[in-house]
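Chains adopt folds. We examine one example:
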Amino acid sequence: MMEFLKPRASEQEESHWLSVSDLMAGLMVVFLFIALAFMRNAWNEQRNALEAQRKAEYELGRIKEVAVAYQETQVDIYKALLGEFFKDLSRWDAEIDQDTLTFTFNSPDVLFAQGKIELSEQYRALLADFFPRYMTVLDQFRSGINEVRIEGHTSSVWNDYTSPTDAYFLNMALSQGRTRSVLEYVYSLEAVTPYQDWIKSHIAAVGFSSAKLVLDDNENENLEKSRRVTFRVISNADIRIKQILEIDG
């Protein structure tokens, strides 16, 4: 009778394979969940990458719009300045750089006495003619202008007895004093009274000493051209680009 209580070999084998199949089924479910998790992560990463790419393309597009507007503004300001002052450039020994919107007065010996910051009478008369017309031109482009700089530049020398370092700082004080004299004078002109508030907030007087020398074709310093006073318009394109990036970020 006891023999009937013992499971047969076929029953034992069947029970063993059922356990293995259950284990395999469980493992398959685990692997399926793992695969789904990896697929979900990969999909999320791909979606995030696409979103980042779309955002970058959008930001780049907006920056390009600013760059195009900046270029158009540069051209418009240059054309307006050239149209206003074309007939005066030769008699003033002046020039306008299209790329930097820099209006340069050369011949500092006519503008200032050597080593002095006081404006000559000839330069006062020139500025009285130039600056009110200059402000009238710039007034048309206020929204695109961040700053206007009156920049003073000198050569790298002072005299035969001064070291290069001493000459640099002496010329720094000279260039700063000259641009301050220019700004003080043009600010006081009656014709620019309507622009005084804008001048105070947008025009700066800067002395560069010999930091930005003019070189000839052989990379040698051109002493005469290095001594100059310039009016440079700086657009607000870089600020607008920064604002776009901050807003989108």
